[in-house]
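Quick question: what would this complex look like in 3D?
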Amino acid sequence: MMKISRQLVPLTLLAIAAHLSALAAETGIDQQKAVLLEKEKPAGQMVAPEERRVFFGELHLHTTFSLDAWGYGTKLRPDAAYRFGQGEPVKVPAAQIAREHGITDKDYVFAQRSWPLDFMAVTDHSENLGTMVPLENPDSEFAKSELGQKYMANPGSAMMDKVMAMLSGTEPPPELHDAGAMKEAWEITKKAANDYYQPGKFTTFIAYEWSALPKGNNLHRNVIFNADHAPDPFTAYDSTRPEDLWTYLDSVRAQGIDVLAIPHNSNVSNGLMFDWNDSDGKPIDEAYAQRRAMNEPLAEIVQIKGQSETIPELSPNDEFANFEIFDDLLPMPGVRSKPEGSYVRDGLGRGVVIDTRAGSNPFKYGMVGASDIHNSLSVSDEANYAGDQFGLDADTMMPKGKALKKSLGVKNVIEPRPGESKKSYDARRTGALGRGSAGLTGVWAEENTRDSIFSAFKRRETFATSGTRIRLRMFASWDIKPTDIGSYDWLADAYARGTAMGGDLPGSPGGANAPYFIVEALKDPDGANLDRIQIIKLWADGNEYREKIFNVALSDNRSPDRKTGKVAPVGSTVNLKTGNYTNEIGAPYLSVTWQDPEFEADSAAVYYARVLEIPTPRWSTLVAVKNKMPIPDDVPATIQERAWSSPIWFKP
Amino acid sequence: MRLVKQILSEPLVHFVLTAFAIYFAVGVVNGGHSSRAQDHILISPARVEQLSNLYQQQFGQRPDQSTLDKLLESDIEEEILMREALKLNLDASDEVVRRRLAQKMRFLIEDLNAPPEPGDQELERYLQENARRYEVPATVSFHHVFFTDRGPMGDGFQRAQAVLDEHHSDGQIEPGMGDPFPDRYHYSDYSLEQVQRVMGQTPAAEELLKAPTGHWFGPVQSGYGWHLFYVDSRSVPRMPQLADIRGRLRIDFMRDAEEQLNEQALQRLVSHYQIVGMGEDG
């Protein structure tokens, strides 16, 4: 059977018309074939699961091929992005550093990442991909046209034209749709991913971003391919409905290319990302739930435009929810995104409710973190960021002059618009300052290859961090005794008898009345100690869900108050004059075996772990100290960096 | 150097150099204030067509005759004003125009310089010239036992030392004698960079790469706590075979060659100029 299917698939492929509409009808059959294909080649089958290693990577980065990035001044292409990601020095041209960092006295600078990533995907916007590139050639028709002249004189205006067209439902100028330019950029993108893929050392993925923004509400998804080739991208001009994106993804899988989509910035989706309803306003049913869970196993929970876990308004009992909040709708600074339905925790809760009601869970998301940086230079360390859309080398690219003041939100650096409200002005003034430094994705995989890492994505054996290299893993089981984690080969047991994060805990084998959760977290080897491990539980309660946070492992011999369950803060060692901290508090390693004391066998539930570091200086504090500027008071001076595990689900 | 010679013998390069020579000769003649009998403005059918197209792009329809006349009139005025501006050297004093012209020129010289595909010999030479970049680094294979710092004073060092004292450097020391380490207890063929990614950029990493094989040593501090280490074996740095890295080498070679050719093209222009520093009395 297997052999036949392998031969048949390419033939079927030839028969498939290029148009998505034609493919939609065949989806059911093609999906089955895709599953068969997958089973023929399980990645890393020879390696025992306890041998899985952690790999850190970036799954969201823009280069000059993105229309908005070009508008900011970005010149570097995907090849430079991959070179930088794997730790090589990259030459950043004058035009880019002048516009993005206000450095005007140099022809170029060399930038180097402080440590190499293990894996990476360049995800340029598929809409208008690379269509500004012809302007680099002064003799191109576009460069000679009035429109081209306008864009060169005012590079940001191209993005304005695009957004205005998108919001008003009209077509942007035809030059922004130049099919030849888009084709060329996509070929260069794919070639760069293949050129810099070094199996075992540095994994790249061909990828792009589908940037649907209906009415200014963010529904963006990154599309990641597991192959050395890929069909032309799907764009928000094709459709802004996620259901149509999944039809495209199904068609890609039918071509024998595995692919998935990762939603991001649900925090600015205005409640649409984890809505109870589908795009037509109908309650989510089983078929929708299954399609979504299959196409979207992961959600990006943190990036420079804030975290999407939760906010205090949705989680009033979460004392750590007030972290890197960014919730103004993207095209409308000062206009707030509706919180309900916009955060991953809320989505996970809604998911178990829908599962109970409709028989399947649409929001079965594992966690990833990324940058969404727009200047090709993916960084994640707090010290290598100075706000806005840009990564930097702190030694060579620290913003200067007005750019520096802008990144710290200094008043009256950007001009107020005539008649502009204070709220709108402040939103624009702190636009760069309000961004957090980038996140990272951690995966547990057998080896550093496309197949192995992509398989980890699909089984959601991933975690997200706010940028530091915390290592985090979680298992659930009915029969792991609390003593087992202390033994040195407990991992083989945990995999054999338990459920790794990202998975489903099967029903109780009888006897056991509540599942155990095993969590371990290790600090960033070059970073701060850990404050605590928490387990966040969400469970279905009729048409709603409830949430509760358990402090399950604490540093410094602290224990929760018997009455309130509250835990004393870990304290702080941050010196705001020097921007330094010490690891005199906290712990390098925390682990715990925890049994849910409130487990109810008849309600669906989902659990994930969150690890907090001790307080460290926020990037804005580091930039201010380094440049002898006042520490901005619009944002906290210190933060508690953190990691989020993928969840484990239980269904009665 | 052979590459440079090869390039200089290319007919295309001769053509480009000649083009530059003419370009500059014309520049000198036009730039001077030699009187010209009469300035002509040539209106070609192509220019008329171009103006019509621009108008259509903007307003969605072809211009009628009177509109076209107006377009031509303002186009001619613009041309005249531009020529007069050039005579007054206004282009040189306008930062935007200056930068734009420089950008055009740079594009022009860079566009003409596509480097030829390298053969194995060139790649081999490139590999030798950039040995440090492609060297396969020294590696180490090692066991370790981990001791975390417990309590406010931290007891990791003492506990590690106690285990080493009890079993000696040639004894049987097992991971179970320390604390659980949430990664491996044995690492094979790790480079310094890989060790640093596990242990942090701490003395532990560098000590491992230098330590003698075949006995336990420590305690050494990592980013997490204290370790006893045992090095099984190590490898010295070596050069990779061309066949193993040909693809990557070719990408790097082409990128470098392109940059080099662009730089040479620029330097050829630079060589036409004498840079004179102006002193206080100058």
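Answer marked as accepted. Residues 1-44 of chain A have pLDDT under 50 and may be disordered.
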